[in-house]
Amino acid sequence: MMTKRSLAAFVAATALAVLVSPLKSTAEATETIKMVAIDGYPARAMWVKEFSGFFIPRVNEELAKTGNYKIEWQEAYGGTIVKPKGVLDGIKLGLGDIGIVTTVFHNSKLPSQAIAFVTPFIATDARAVAKAVDEIAREFPQMSAELDKQNQVYLATGVVLDTYQVFSTTPISSLDDLNGSKVAGAGYNLRYIEGLGAAGVRGGLTDFYNMLQTGVVDKAMLWPEAAKTFKIAEVAPYMLKADLGAVNSKTVTVNKDVWNKLPDEVKQVLQKVAIEYRDHVAELAMSRAEESLKAYVDGGGTVVEMQAGDREKWAASMDNIAVEWATALDAEGAPGSDMLRAYVAKLRDAGFTPVRDWSAELTN
């Protein structure tokens, strides 16, 4: 039989349990997941800075809404774990769990990622290109399939530049000034200059300053924000504003073995925030374009606008690398031609008129 004293003690204990148990169960329910984020580029590179300062905090914020999971992040950039060209293999091998792959370095392994590179002279808007490429990736399985072979899961495309321009150590005012030049580029964009009498030299963004300073090249293709960040005006004080176009050069991926172990809630948050990061970085690229161009001029640079006729002449001088790209994918059983047509159509629908319609020259 329960006495008054024991009844009072029971009621007090029950009340205490009601107060304490929700807090205890919430704490016990929060599962910590460790993830290593990698990129070979330094933290000052815009897309790395925004991955650290935007992507990661947004993931944390979304997960905190339920409190079921939290991620304990280890960030390793600037060669700490991998070099810029090593992110793809680093994530494949599990050296990093999530990271930003610079896809232009991997045309043989990730051929479909070159879709914007092979279609220059269309859009100088990072937002439009990022959205179009990401829609292609979701409408066609090819991009995801290529990353699957590299033990990775595709999250989203990143476009970090408004448009490629030509930076030069010597005065440059027209297309003719490219004849006889040695031009640094990242890969596919070296195909742009083949019909101009220039020689392409492959290099990475972090190499361009030294390549220009030492005379390995006398010109380089990059964009104003990167020129500002890497102080290109000091070694290449002349810019030909050619407006070659924006390209997708970054893709956020996750190691597939890691992905398969993640709870669905965490997967959904990563996918959602990756799209936010895509749009955030593209918007930032555009907002910084003008100020970066001004910073280049303030740093001693001179900008010369290329004439419209020269842009048409340049586009006409090129082999149709878009058709080459598409038919090579077709030959492998991938929908290259369909992807090319869809991509150009998306940009047209977004209000951009190609200087040269690459897809119109497809034969199938």
What's this, in brief?
Helices cover 44% and strands 16% of the residues. It is an alpha/beta fold and 364 residues long.
Structure, explained:
With 364 residues, the chain is α/β, with parallel strands linked by helices. It folds into two domains: 28-105 and 128-158 and 249-287, Bacterial extracellular solute-binding protein, family 7 (D-Maltodextrin-Binding Protein, domain 2, 3-Layer(aba) Sandwich); 165-246 and 290-358, Bacterial extracellular solute-binding protein, family 7 (D-Maltodextrin-Binding Protein, domain 2). It contains twelve helices and eleven strands. The strands form two sheets. A six-stranded mixed beta sheet has the order 7-6-8-5-9-11. Strands 2-1-3-10-4 form a five-stranded mixed beta sheet. Residues 6-27 have low confidence and may be disordered.
Count of separate DSSP helical elements:
12
Topology pattern, helix = H, strand = E: HEHEHEHHEEEEHEHEEHHEHHH
- CATH level-four homologous superfamily name of the largest domain: Bacterial extracellular solute-binding protein, family 7
How many angstroms does the end-to-end distance come to?
A: 90 Å
